[in-house]
């Protein structure tokens, strides 16, 4: 953490340990962090993991949800799916980061968190240079008062001049992410920059990401020998000299290969932004274009038939030598709560005044194979059939809006004019919605109504 901190970088520059004029790495990506069984505690039947959808500064809604779940930090592990800021109130973003940073809550970096990280480090880079702090304060004051002259506006637009040329192409000066980056503390920045793109939880064969993951490289056939799920996992240095790996080790090795050998899964932009895949194999943020990545994931993972499939008689032609894994993600409010057998999308539009949803996993229920098998409906559940505790209506899919792809800095407008809040017309369910989760366990979905000001 210290290496990534704003203060640490500035001090090194001042002490002459770096070239203050050279632009630093504004991204500071951590691709994957692995959480052990001890980290999440689900080996204990009395422990829970609470995964929450996109928060977007909705601090009060988060605490309403945690209160309704009787959240206990000593017994529960809280995990978020990213997009902590923007859309909601500025004060909410700051309060939310206060809570998450002080408690060291696990989570991943979202596409709206990323430009805040970038701007924050940019501020410190500019201010570490001679005359930079004075220029930045002067230009911010003029912008705030509407006093930028035509020449300054032209220089800002064309990125010309000593200082304006230092603003990276595509970044929106004085925009919402800029303002949030100005408002947050060093502790908030350190927390944001510490968030990985992917949380891998091998004990539950689960990934947590913001945007999504692909089960294979769509530029090649699914059964191509370079596809991780098309062959048995490779021996790692840890297993060299051993006769073989047991099934659990093979599963984890294959899960790691999905992250490292599918090119799209190594691309930070894809992991934070993907919504669909076009017929030509291109990744897009547009919900209406191409095939949802979750459809590819579930269709592929459904073909996993175990590591002995190649030697088994009566093997189906499309079976793959792999074991299934689950992705929990956010990012796509336009699809609403999107629950399938091997993927769970938790962005239910809280920042738009809809709901904040949590997936709750308990150590006891993840061991309940009988309950899980009785919940399966053709190996898949859609959100059209789900009701959530506190809801007065069934959760619905939302028609997708076209999202602007420009530079990942324009707001994702996931609002749908046809959304119909039917709270007064529905029936209140008696319990949280149960869904099959993992190999043979169950999860529970809860939500609270979000109130925007």
TrEMBL record:
Name recorded for this polypeptide: Metallo-dependent phosphatase
Composition bias type Acidic residues, residue spans: 399-424
Disordered: annotated span: 1-23, 397-443
UniProt cross-references to SUPFAM superfamilies, sorted A to Z: Metallo-dependent phosphatases
GO cellular component: cytoplasm
Gene Ontology BP terms: polyphosphate catabolic process
Gene3D superfamilies in UniProt: 3.60.21.10
GO MF assignments: endopolyphosphatase activity; phosphatase activity
Pfam families membership: Metallophos
Compositional bias (Basic and acidic residues): 10-23
Domain (Calcineurin-like phosphoesterase) ranges: 48-188
